[in-house]
Amino acid sequence: MQQEYTPSLNDKAYLTAVYRQYSPALLAYLYRHLRSLEDAEDLLLDVFLAALERQGFEGLGTKEQEAWLWCVARNKITDHYRKRKHRQNISLEFVPDEDYGQDSMTPEIMLLHKEEAERLQAHIERLPAHQQELVRLRFAHGLRSTEIATIVQKSEGAVRTMLSRAIKLLRKVYENE
């Protein structure tokens, strides 16, 4: 009789697989909010340390593990800003990640794309903080409404409504320009 394999947090291969699966997206999310690679890497480590300390993490399904990690990442960002509330910081300029390697991209087209990305980022930054977060989770990280709802601890319908309102507001701003 063959024994069924159950993952364990003591299993190095299991831990490596979980880290490789979720760390790139989580690091990107943390970096977008912190704009410091060092701080983002530190918080990413904290997120996975929390997973190691959580009893029963390995028993969660894939979707539950992902949602739990995203929730912890979001909470770590909040904690980070609470700790730094009284410190004065200067944010780095937002630099969109664009693919400039295409041969068809002339310098003029590249400049237009960059200006458009900067305009969009400026408009997004004018949205209320909760709408900014939803827009980034949806479009920068490619998460679905159900996943976002788990992360922000709202209903799926509420997330869809808030996203819809944010997009309508952005469209209105573009139409008025």
UniProtKB/TrEMBL annotation:
Q: Does the keyword Iron-sulfur apply?
A: no
Q: List residues of the RNA polymerase sigma factor 70 region 4 type domain.
A: 118-170
This chain's source organism reads Ktedonospora formicarum
Q: Which PANTHER family match?
A: RNA POLYMERASE ECF-TYPE SIGMA FACTO (PTHR43133), RNA POLYMERASE SIGMA FACTOR HI_1459-RELATED (PTHR43133:SF8)
Boundaries of every RNA polymerase sigma-70 region domain copy: 19-86
Which InterPro entries did the record assign?
A: RNA_pol_sigma-70-like, RNA_pol_sigma-70_dom, RNA_pol_sigma70_r2, RNA_pol_sigma70_r4_t2, RNA_pol_sigma_r2, RNA_pol_sigma_r3/r4-like, WH-like_DNA-bd_sf
Q: Which CDD domains match?
A: Sigma70_r4
| Any one GO BP annotation for this protein | DNA-templated transcription initiation
Q: What is this protein called?
A: RNA polymerase sigma24 factor
Looking up Pfam families in the UniProt record yields: Sigma70_r2, Sigma70_r4_2
Per its UniProt record, what NCBIfam families does this chain match? sigma70-ECF
> What family does this chain come from, according to its entry?
Belongs to the sigma-70 factor family. ECF subfamily.
Q: What GO terms are given for molecular function? A: DNA binding; sigma factor activity
